[in-house]
Design brief:
The chain is mostly helical and 105 residues long. It has 2 domains: 2-58, no CATH class; 66-105. The protein has 5 helices and no strands. The chain is elongated, with a radius of gyration of 22 Å. The mean pLDDT is 79.
């Protein structure tokens, strides 16, 4: 998603907000289609019309750049911190539930 957002000259959070909209602007759909080389007319024929054939031929392919070892290490650290945080929340939740059960009696 980051590569698509970059190609659209926006950020990932904006792209996700676009995708979450119930009624996304057709121009944005066309822009995304151009980046990913997909003609959305087949998916949304009732709202998209016109000559979009040029989009796929004009689009620059999105180039995948493999993550550096530092980025992969940072991603791993974030996953581990996330897992530890979730475990702590689960432990806290169990403690609160146990406390509420013992105080009711």
């Amino acid at each position: 998603m980051g590569m698509i957002a970059k190609a659209l000259d926006t950020d990932r959070s904006t792209l996700y907000r676009w995708l979450d909209q119930q009624n996304m602007d057709v121009n944005k759909v066309e822009q995304i289609g151009k980046v990913i080389k997909w003609d959305f007319r087949q998916d949304f024929p009732e709202i998209m019309s016109g000559d979009l054939e040029h989009l796929a031929s004009e689009a620059e392919p999105v180039k995948y750049k493999p993550a550096s070892p530092q980025v992969r290490m940072a991603e791993q650290l974030v996953r581990e911190a996330h897992d530890e945080y979730l475990q702590r929340l689960a432990d806290l939740n169990r403690a609160v539930v146990m406390d509420s059960l013992t105080t009711r009696k």
